[in-house]
Amino acid sequence: MPAEGLLAASWLLIALPLAGAAVLLLGGRRTDRWGHLLGTATVVAAFVLAVACTVQLAGLDQRSADVELFTFIRSGELDVTAGLLYDPLSAIFALLITGVGSLIHVYSIGYMAHDPARRRFFAYLNLFVAAMLLLVLGNSFVALYVGWEGVGLASYLLIAFWYTRPAAATAAKKAFIMNRVGDVGLAIAIFVMFAQLGTTSYAGVFGSVGTLAGGTITAIGLLLLLGACGKSGQFPLQAWLPDAMEGPTPVSALIHAATMVTAGVYLIARSAPIYDLAPTARAVVLAIGAGTLLIGAIAGCAYDDIKKVLAYSTVSQIGYMFLAVGLGPAGYVAGLAHLLAHGFFKAGLFLGAGSVMHAMNDSVDMRRFGALWKKLPVTFATFGLGYLALIGFPFLSGYFTKDAIIEAALDRGDVWGWVLGGVAVLGAGLTAFYMTRLMLMTFFGRARWEDGVHPHEAPTVMTAPMVVLAVGSVGAGALLVSVFPLSGWLEPVFGEPAEAAHVVAPAVIGLVVTVVMLLGVLAAWLFVGRREVPVTAPVRVSPVTRAARNALYADTVNESLFMRPGQWLTRALVWLDNRGVDGAVNGLAAGLGGTSSRLARTQTGFVRSYAMGMLGGAVLVAGALLAVTAG
Amino acid sequence: MSASLYLVAMIAVPAIGAAAVAALPRERGLLAKQVTLGVSLVVLLLAVLATAAFDVDGDRFQLTTSVSWIPDFGAEFALGVDGIALVMLLLIGVLVPLVVTASWHEADHGPRPTRVFFAWLLLLEAMMVGVFVATDVLLFYVFFEAMLVPMYFLIGSFGGPRRQYAAVKFFLYSLVGGLIMLAAVIGLYVVSTSQLGEGTFAFDALRQLDIDPEVQKLLFLGFFVAFAIKAPLVPFHTWLPDSGAEAPIGGSVLLVGVLDKVGTFGFLRYCLPLFPDASRFFAPFVLVLAVVGILYAALLAMGQSDMKRLVSYTSISHFGFIALGIFAFTTEAGTGAVLYMVNHGLATGLLFLVVGMLISRGGSRQIGDYGGVAAKAPLLAGAFLVAGLASLALPGTNSFVSEFLVLIGSFPERPVFTVVATVGIILAALYILLMYQRTMHGPPRGVLLQQDAAEPAPGLGTGGATATATATRTAAPGTLRVLDLSRRELVVVAPLVALIIGLGVYPQPLLDLIEPAVSATMSDLGGTDR
């Protein structure tokens, strides 16, 4: 139904941070002194507005509000209206983006305090928030696509923020390109929708998707999935996400952990009416989720770079979310609850990692950390809570949300349910292993600091957001699953939650997962905690470790399959175009009017060529006239 | 002034201006520039007035004028615009003053007088207007050929080191194409004589002819080859990288931004309505050329080391999208293709201009001679990025709307071609971001590097605040000697950036102008349009 009251002004959610970005980018150095404050204020204001909008939404009978803005593209049969849809699904994302976004803006005031380009940082961060809100609030696949590529741009700009570092510049480009591969899928899905249904709006597509042939729906589902994999760092497009850690750490927290990379989950959840009719596509979602869950977790076990471990953890956790939404109605709510909880604890973990780096002269090498718990008490406490939440320690966030996914998988009741549930449980053990390893190497053991490092706790402007996120890490799961059930809130989107089959009693699942988790912790202690951590990584390691250190050779495959053949092809084509195509035509020209270099030398030569050209033309004219009269 | 005279004035004012500028004494170079700028602004004003006088719901051709020209052949000096021609006039009106401003010092130090450069520029503007507003096919042909002359001299007299080679190559290619078209124009006249009793070149009369399909095929090919060289489609393209690279920057902008669009304009104005059966017959072949061109030219762009050649190849790739949109035969795709013609002029125009600004600082066209420029010239880098993002059709920029319309409009009719073309958007991201990364990112490097660190760099302190954070992170071997955009350069860049973003967010006014003319063309074609 059309929006009224505050909801009619929900476009301000996007406009506020966008205006912030515009002022900071156009204002230039004049805004250096207060730019970060303006940037933060716009996002905080958007958060307040999002809360107000959501409260109003909760009071509506239909719990869905349409905001029509203006005609974006209208030509022939195509009519794309720029408009927003504020419903329970977009509302939880708007709250997550602006809420976590506000905290990370505040944190960045401290984190980027000594960077002369802090204003530019806040401009890009604001741009990101605006694009991300457009992505989740848009009422059509085209609006989603505009936001989708918009967050890709913001991600590019922020990964390359320290662009004089070649690694950062390359990582940014890699992220953009791999995302574009996914975007092609999303774009073609939109083309199919328009060709088959004549519309790209959610209401139009979901209302009539049932009229399509099954194969077409499956194709749409798979194409959307390709887009989702690119944005969310899922197999086979996962290799860009760990490299994206070249960006400043607040960026990793906001974009590459809490919000942007979960856009794929949003897309699949939003497209539920399509996937409901495409069981094959849904099965592929499941397979990709389960596979990526393991790939990320295995790679996370082997890295020594604290941010890369967290990045692979993100890849793995989003794998859980894909698995959940791939389960269909039984899993949507579980996946989204895990997404929200993950938004809290992973953002908190990254901010904690940023605080550690802040203390360690920007080093990310965990082999040179150790014994930091005493020096960084607030960071240790908040990071520790995030850690416990992530590994699913009983009654913290991850415990509720991850168990809900495993439960939903087992409730399939078939052999695949057991396989998927097993993978998810195994993943929980691996998660406990790599995160415990990270904790032990960073906060415990002997100090292995490089010379001249004097760790100090971060200023309050940085620790305060960490504390807030830690509280969220502890409470979000219980809140979303038990106290204020997300399933009820999302009912207008996904329908009434089905009665759970309880193939395995929840208590049993909780117990099993906890035992597996404790085994992972124990293993980490046996491998890392018991012994001295060497300051350089051991070279002679098992093939398994080597494969994990290379992230299961994803980059190697990409390079040998695409990059190097592409370079050869390009070189060959350049040669061909200069020698072959151009050479042939030059030869023709030479035959017609003498060599072109001689023509160029003298005016006479030029005139002669003109004359020759005229003659050639006249012959053609005569020929054509003959042909015409004959015809 | 009566509205019907706007078009005449748009040809006459720059033509007379060209004569006046050419007649100035050699030492009055500044006056020549000022007159040229003034005249080009008058043309912009006329284009805006013409748009205001144009009724979107009115006749197909408006603001018409017709004077008997060569009565023996029934040729008339007939002018008029439809929405397609009108948006091209607006593009010319916007681009030429910016090109004049950007080329302010282009001819200052060359062997040839400044006034000559600007006189050719104005004459070129007059011919470009003429080619879009002619509604008599013979008149169109005359403008089509006459347009070559000023461009030939702009390249040959004011271009880069290989300007002679490039200019002759440009001329020969265009000439061959033009002569083949002349044959077809004459053929068309012969057909009109046999069908109507007396021959005519009037577009509206020719459109009504019922031409035998076999004859149509021959005539179609005559026009098509000329336009495919001009646009250019692979494999008729090899002249463009040379001309685009060797022409002075202003020439490159107008060459790729406007002149080449005469080819795609010609497809839409002449090939489709005059030869509908042949158009349908040849459409699959043209689409193959278009889609091969999109990927082939994009791969070639990635392999270039010369920035101007790279941008020229990206344009060939983009022309493939335009041709796809035109030969998909749907209103959406056709409208998208025309909008693409305008948007590409703005986006690639800006890209060429910014590349030119970089080249004017470093004196080299080689990508490898630059590095880390963003740290010293953030405005230049920002303009470069906006132009690049528009070129890769990022949503929020104008090019997204047109590329999206072309693709979504082509898909229902030609799904396979469209899917292959869509892969081109990955390659577009690659060629743009590779060039951007190599020139703007990374540590300072190349021809702009300050040789003697003791000597204070002229560029220091002008907007260098950005990203010096990294100085502590990477040991910079030296600093760049580079000034950020000057006020004059900002005046060139700002309107284009504003248009790129403005038309990216709210393109509907242009679409409303374009669409009626495109649907009229589709009904001439006897529509496979759904």
Automatic annotation (TrEMBL), chain A:
Residues 139-424 form the NADH:quinone oxidoreductase/Mrp antiporter transmembrane domain. GO terms for cellular component: endomembrane system; membrane. It is a multi-pass membrane protein. InterPro entries: NADHpl_OxRdtase_5_subgr, ND/Mrp_TM, NU5C-like, Proton_antipo_N. Keywords: Membrane, Transmembrane, Transmembrane helix. The keyword Transmembrane applies. The chain crosses the membrane at residues 6-26, 38-59, 89-109, 121-138, 184-203, 209-230, 251-269, 281-302, 309-330, 378-396, 416-440, 461-484, 504-528, 610-630. One of its GO terms (biological process) is electron transport coupled proton transport. It comes from the Bacteria. This is NADH dehydrogenase subunit L. It comes from Blastococcus saxobsidens.
From TrEMBL, chain B:
One of its GO terms (biological process) is electron transport coupled proton transport. GO terms for cellular component: endomembrane system; membrane. The keyword Oxidoreductase does not apply. It is a multi-pass membrane protein. Its main location: membrane. The chain crosses the membrane at residues 6-24, 36-54, 83-104, 116-134, 140-158, 170-191, 218-240, 252-275, 281-303, 310-331, 337-359, 379-396, 416-436, 490-506. It is found in: Endomembrane system; Membrane. Keywords: Membrane, Transmembrane, Transmembrane helix. GO terms for molecular function: NADH dehydrogenase (ubiquinone) activity; NADH dehydrogenase activity; ubiquinone binding. The keyword GTP-binding does not apply. Residues 134-425 form the NADH:quinone oxidoreductase/Mrp antiporter transmembrane domain. PANTHER family: NADH-UBIQUINONE OXIDOREDUCTASE CHAIN 4. Belongs to the complex I subunit 4 family. This is NADH dehydrogenase subunit M. It comes from Blastococcus saxobsidens.
